[in-house]
Amino acid sequence: MKIHSLGYIGVNCTDPSRWAHYGTQVLGMMDVSHQLADDDSVYLKMDDRPWRIVIQSSDTDCYAFSGWEVAGPDDFADAINTLEQHGINFERAGAELTAQRRVQDLVSFTDPDGNRHEVYWGPIS
Description:
Blueprint: E1 5-13, H1 17-26, E2 30-31, H2 33-36, E3 42-45, E4 53-57, E5 62-69, H3 73-85, E6 91-92, H4 95-101, E7 103-110, E8 116-123
Parallel strand pairs: 1-4, 5-8
Antiparallel strand pairs: 1-5, 2-3, 3-4, 6-7, 7-8
């Protein structure tokens, strides 16, 4: 599997609004929640991508997911083949999740410790 980069992360938080201040005042990111969120989630960006960190409302404060970018559709197909060859169960995302993540296509799987990972290609700006 040829991972190009860590593209985004998701965080569960009991009070996402705390991250708006932290993200903008400490990390120097832009709060683009008004453009992307239809709930109280906080979306933060730092470059030309639509977002890099999303903080979702939850009953607990914890990691939610990581988005691992591959270079294109061929590497995406290779990633799926690698998951299949190693017997790793994965789920292909539907149109709603790919639109929410602003990517062309993605699959998700859970590691042995229960952490969610998403492999995707084709970020949409």
